[in-house]
Design brief:
240 residues; transmembrane; membrane; 66% helix; mainly alpha; 2 domains
């Protein structure tokens, strides 16, 4: 005779309802990602406008189109493209990670980076994109700067650059690089620890080792760690 199914109490039903509501709240992020799609559309218009002005400047008066001017225009276009790439990673990766799966396993157009995306990988990729954008701005500064702090502006965009301002740009760019390295190190450490745990679990299943408590099987765990290349932690002393 099968035991009767216990009737859920009012407290358990209330807990399940609250949990379901909290789980459904992730869809509140969907309008945010839709808004980022609109922002990307605006960047497309900005890109086309900058491309038109650059082409007009080069075609109408090629002799006055200096190489530095064209280079700055191209760097501006690359800047817009890199920001658009950043938006794509946030929209697709964020939706896939925090809202719902996109079910693109059978799609030929599935991006390669989406197959192994998670919160740690997404943060690292975003940091690398920010470094790329910062590099573009820093390169534009190095091209434009002429006489630091000069009263008469002689650079290409009419902006006045100070030595302190350029140093601050370099310092901020360095901070971005250090932050990205820190995120990459944390992600590598996390993946290494997870891989080690998986190897131990597989080895345990092969040897048929099961632990009854936190102190059971300590010597077996040490032997498993040594078998998979970990530190030698075998304790041969008798247990009390």
């Amino acid at each position: 005779m099968n035991p009767a199914t216990p009737t859920p109490t009012i407290g358990s039903r209330w807990t399940n309802s609250v949990g379901s509501l909290i789980f459904l709240s992730r869809w509140l992020q969907a309008p945010l990602y839709l808004g980022l799609i609109v922002a990307q559309l605006l960047y497309v218009f900005q890109f086309m406008g900058e491309l038109w002005h650059l082409a007009e400047h080069v075609v109408t008066d090629p002799r006055k189109a200096e190489q530095a001017v064209v280079m700055l225009g191209v760097l501006g276009l690359i800047d817009v493209v890199m920001i658009a790439n950043l938006l794509i990673m946030v929209i697709i990766g964020g939706y896939e990670t925090f809202v719902s799966k996109l079910n693109l396993e059978d799609s030929r157009d599935r991006p390669e980076w989406l197959s192994h995306v998670n919160s740690n990988v997404l943060k690292t990729k975003l940091a690398m994109s920010i470094i790329g954008i910062s590099s573009i701005h820093l390169l534009k500064t190095f091209i434009e700067v002429n006489d630091l702090g000069a009263e008469e502006v002689e650079n290409l965009t009419g902006e006045v650059y100070s030595e302190a301002g350029v140093l601050w740009q370099v310092a901020i760019h360095t901070i971005f690089i250090l932050s990205a390295l820190g995120l990459a190190w944390i992600d590598r450490w996390h993946n290494k620890d997870a891989a080690r745990s998986r190897r131990l679990m597989i080895k345990e299943r092969k040897l048929g080792i099961f632990h009854a408590g936190p102190d059971a099987g300590a010597r077996e765990i040490a032997e498993l760690e040594a078998a998979v290349g970990g530190p030698e932690l075998v304790d041969s002393s008798p247990r009390s």
